[in-house]
Automatic annotation (TrEMBL):
Pfam name, any one: Aminotran_1_2
Keyword terms: Biotin biosynthesis, Pyridoxal phosphate, Transferase
Gene Ontology molecular functions: 8-amino-7-oxononanoate synthase activity; pyridoxal phosphate binding
Stretches assigned to the Aminotransferase class I/classII large domain: 31-370
Subunit record text: Homodimer.
GO biological process: biotin biosynthetic process
Annotated organism of origin: Streptomyces griseorubiginosus
Enzyme superclass (EC): transferase
EC numbers: 2.3.1.47
Name of the protein described by the UniProt record: 8-amino-7-oxononanoate synthase
Record's catalysed reaction(s): 6-carboxyhexanoyl-[ACP] + L-alanine + H(+) = (8S)-8-amino-7-oxononanoate + holo-[ACP] + CO2
Source organism phylogeny: Bacteria, Bacillati, Actinomycetota, Actinomycetes, Kitasatosporales
Pathway recorded for this protein: Cofactor biosynthesis; biotin biosynthesis
């Protein structure tokens, strides 16, 4: 029977407690949200919503074509200029998602005969970029510049190291300065995904590469998503102008994809301008994360010390993680639940996001609920 094997896979998933399902979210959900990636609480900010509305009124519902045909509006260009200036890079290129931006950066910068050295904890979109690239990939241990150095030392020809800046599962930060040093010793490029760093780390939320003194370097390329701190949707590659020009000409997820919807570009631009005016939002997100971690640990829970705004709490098994998240939801708290295959080490976790707009009372309530429902 066609697709018969799907039923076997579904049965195996059920047996392993790994079934995933969609739960539509009502607009007026009463749940306290510690599950979204809206780190700065900007997705529903009136200025961000107005940015989307104004852009849709001006440019329409869609970009109408690929970026190289009709899909580049003046709004896309303004967003690219302002993001590059904010993060400290020469140029920026907007994509329809962070996923597409990562596929573009890795595939276009790793030609035939090249080596890609990839951290074992990287996000799926970087992993898929490695799979699609013409170069050969070597996966190295997590957050280990010496392993990167060693791998680069085995190769003659173009090379690239790729890493998340803040790992989405545990919220720990990559050793960016060490990675850059290892790459420079071997003349290799460094591509880092700052999806969870932009808006949270660096001065006023300028991101982890900015904080590490790597902004504007001619051997560093940064990818970001507009869908987390900036409360919108879309992705961006930031780097030297010659890299961006190369992507315009060579990156398939740029060339063969419809441009980002104007409403998303308008919302992201409004959020970026707001963050520029209110830089304290970044520090507040970090402060909420530290406070949340301290209280969870004091309550006897095993939480990983956060380097940005993601706080991860260990769960004993995938089934118990799912039940724990469901019990939290029943008690009015929405938390994320990570389990295999989304976690490379097989450890299931609750994943909490420390939003800048959480109040002390909400943080306390969250800790009470998580502690009170623990398996
Ligand atoms: C580290 C990381 N990179 C890339 C992405 C993909 O970004 P987008 O959702 O914009 O496709 C995500 C998650 O969404 C992520 O967590």
């Amino acid at each position: 029977m066609a697709f018969g094997w799907i039923d076997e896979q579904a049965a195996a998933r059920r047996r392993a407690g790994l079934v995933r399902s969609l739960r539509p979210r009502p607009a007026d959900s009463p749940l306290l949200d510690l599950a979204s990636n809206d780190y700065l609480g900007l997705a529903r900010h009136p200025e961000v919503v107005a940015g989307a509305q104004e852009a849709a009124r001006t440019w329409g519902g869609g970009a109408t074509g690929s970026r190289l045909v009709t899909g580049t509006t003046e709004l896309h260009t303004a967003l690219e200029h302002e993001l590059a200036a904010f993060c400290g890079f020469e140029a920026a290129l907007v994509f329809s998602s962070g996923y597409a931006a990562n596929l573009a950066a890795v595939t276009a910068l790793a030609p035939h005969g090249s080596l890609i050295v990839s951290d074992a904890g990287n996000h799926a979109s970087l992993i898929d970029g490695c799979r699609l690239a013409r170069g050969t990939t070597q996966v190295v241990g997590h957050a280990d510049p010496d392993a990167v150095r060693k791998a680069l030392g085995t190769h003659d020809g173009p090379a690239l190291a790729v890493s998340d800046t803040v790992f989405s599962v545990d919220g720990d930060a990559a050793p960016l300065a060490g990675l850059a040093e290892a790459c420079r010793e071997h003349g290799a490029g460094l591509v880092v995904d700052d999806a969870h760093g932009l808006g949270v780390l660096g001065a006023g939320g300028r991101g982890a590469p900015h904080a590490a003194g790597l902004a504007g370097a001619d051997d560093v390329v940064v990818t970001v998503t507009l869908s987390k701190s900036l409360g919108s949707q879309g992705g961006v590659v930031l780097g030297p102008a010659r890299v961006v020009e190369h992507l315009v000409n060579a990156a398939r997820t740029f060339i063969f994809d419809t441009g980002l919807a104007p409403a998303a570009a308008g919302a992201a631009l409004a959020a970026l301008r707001l963050l520029g005016r209110e830089p304290e939002r970044a520090a507040r997100a970090r402060e909420v994360a530290t406070g949340l971690h301290a209280r969870l640990t004091a309550a006897g829970l095993e939480a990983v010390r956060p380097d940005a705004a993601v706080v991860s709490v260990r769960a004993p098994s995938p089934e118990e993680a799912v039940q724990w998240a469901a019990d939290c939801r029943a008690a009015g708290l929405f938390v994320g639940c990570f389990r295999p295959p989304s976690v490379p080490d097989g450890i299931s976790r609750l994943r909490l996001t420390a939003r800048a707009d959480l109040t002390e009372e909400q943080i306390e309530r969250a800790v009470q609920v998580i502690g009170g429902t623990r398996p």
